[in-house]
Amino acid sequence: MNSVIPVLDPASPQAEAINNLFLQVLLISAVIFAIVTGLILIAISKGRRRQTLPDQNFGSEKAEIAWVIGPVIIVLWLVAISANLVITLNAIPDVKPQSADNAEEVQDVELIITGHQWWWEVEYPKAGVISANEIHIPADPKRKFRIRINSDDVIHSFWVPQLGPKIDAIPGRDNYLWLQASKPGTYQGRCSEYCGAQHAWMNFLVIGESEEEYQKWIAGQQKKPEATTLISPLAMAGREYFFKATCPRCHKIAGTSAQAMIGPDLTHFATRSEIGSGVLTNSTENLTLWLKNPQAVKPGCKMPNFKLSEQNLKQLVAYLETLK
Ligand code: CUA
Hints:
Immunoglobulin-like, 3 domains, five-stranded mixed beta sheet, binds dinuclear copper ion, cytochrome-c oxidase activity, metal-binding, Cyt_c_oxidase_su2_TM_sf, Cyt_c_oxidase_su2
């Protein structure tokens, strides 16, 4: 699924087009490199033992014309294939490039991605689903997701090497991109614009799955988390602590009084596979580590060290793990 050099293992038509351009440029560069190196080697080997100056040539019209026209053809060809790719990648029909938040427009955007220091908010406006750092899309060569990207603070850049081009997430400006996966898989995404101390830990996952699995996932995310009666006494105590403590000042859990959108939406936290934008995999052990002191795991992140007691820590972990 995740190759060593993901950018050379494209999984969408856009990424394939980028990969093709890269390979063409690589090929032409390799040929030029071979010719130049070859000529140098020939000159070295032929002139090695010579005591006198080699033949001196001045003002060869033919040679001058050849080395002007040759590179011009190569450069024009590179310009043509690059421009062609840019036009193909930017072909997003019916998009008003700079638009206000009008409802009509939101209708046909299937996904809204907002960059934050240092995590990604993921919203499916039609389905009314909000998540973080994990994007699910149906893997289908014919299905394109039109996504809108912006930022809440500084400039970030959204990039899934196997699925297509980078696109900047800029505060106050909407950028658009097609997101598409031709085959099922888990694709690593990165923030590719330096955005502060934890830029390196602003990763996300794009999960390409069958239409059926995708619909199931959406339906699961639309539901409210489990009824409190179904959870253990430890998790119940954690729930009580969550709302008593400062957690709801930053986080949202749908169907509860926690409605803040400063940190990631926790409604279905337990269904995600990573914590802290890829800094840890989501397990009981790692969640404990994270809550114990987020600053030790991801220094500078917005979540402070709350110095929780061992008991509260256990309770909170138990509660958060019920959010499926
Ligand atoms: Cu966000 Cu780099």
